[in-house]
Amino acid sequence: MKLHARLWVTFSLLIVVVSLILYIFIIKVYEARMLEGQKQLIVSQGYSVVDKISGTLPRFPERTEGYLSFYSKQLDMRLFVLHPDRTVWFDSFRELPEHSKLTLEILKSDASPPVGLYVPTSSYGYVQYTMLELDPGRADSGYLLMVNNVDFLYEDIRSFRIQVITILLATVILFFFICYLIASWFTKPIRSLSEQMKKITPLKRVFRPPSGRKDEIGELAVEIGEMVSELNRYDQRQKQFMSSSSHELKTPLATMQLICENLPYVREEKDAHQEFLNDLEVQIGKMKHIVESMLDVNRMWDRPLNRIRLQSQSIEAHIREHFQFVLDQKSIRLKFIAEDGAWLEVDEELFHRGLDNVVSNAIRYSPANSEITVAVKRLDLFRMECTVCDQGIGISAEDLPQIFEPFYRSPEAGEWDQEGSGLGLTIVKQMVDMHGAEIRVTSTPGEGTCITMVFRNKTVTEPPFP
To answer: How many percent of the chain have pLDDT more than 90?
Structure first.
């Protein structure tokens, strides 16, 4: 069942339940008021009869019977005068002899008069019984029992019930349509989102979120829009990656093909043949390096992070162990700066892979007799910063937004004729994203580049003691 139908059914059932409760309440209140009003009327009439006959008992029984007969006809009810033991003393219809016992529920009641009771009967319909004391001041004065038909009262109540049912039924039907409109209004933005989502296909991802909504649906629409935009960016990056990787692989493959085509012609020339084989080995190594880098980029997302506490001393030792020889050969000085107690909470293997690419790029594009600075410092209790700065060729402002794209290489870098896979900074960016960290690049052409990575430690880092 769709959400629109569910809301409609839910609202409709709620209206039905409320209507039933309202109907029961109205009928109960109306019935109670009608019965109480009828009881008060009969009691007031009964006291008028009591005033007349109380002075005739027991000395003037004929006058008592006369009064009972008169009021019985006038009030259209049957009247009994009962002994203190609640047996018949006088009957206005003169059908029951004196001391006859009546088997009525009202006579079994221990409540103090006046007492009223409504009883449905099969022969006479609804009957009202009302019992009053003849003289409340005397215990042996007897009682006046009044019996009258109240079918008219229940007819009124039945008629009122029909009216209430008719009104409530019309109201419920009206509310059915109102609930349908309300459910349609509630689900309209959801239907709009659904229609927009159906338009999204693998070949065409276009989503236009409804504007102006500040509620949860608006937030959902914004999230869906961002997700679609991210998918489009991912597709674009994937296409660019495939295009760039194909281009990068095409160059060594073309060179290898050319070498293989010319090998038979230089077979007799030993030096030339060996040179061709060496070139072939170089191109194979280059292509292998590119493929391994591409696999690294894809494999990194599949592995879980194994965060450990990596001290600044370990970071310095790793850099010097892997790059000191190259630094010495290029006469580049390495300066390492670390605050006391500074450490990173990272996956050691992934962090070192990313850091190696940053340091390797810094060495590759730095001139001789320059300096590379690596600094690890604390920003606050949770955030730690690792920065690598060089004095190399720098990056132009136009190239900065693209340096993390796969296989991207700025024209200035091409002039240095440096070999590489073109995926180094892509791997760095991926490592940073996997850690939920930030990366910033500042650069001035001809002066150098600084790459700053900000990591958030899960454990609070206490500042060192002064």
So the answer is: 28
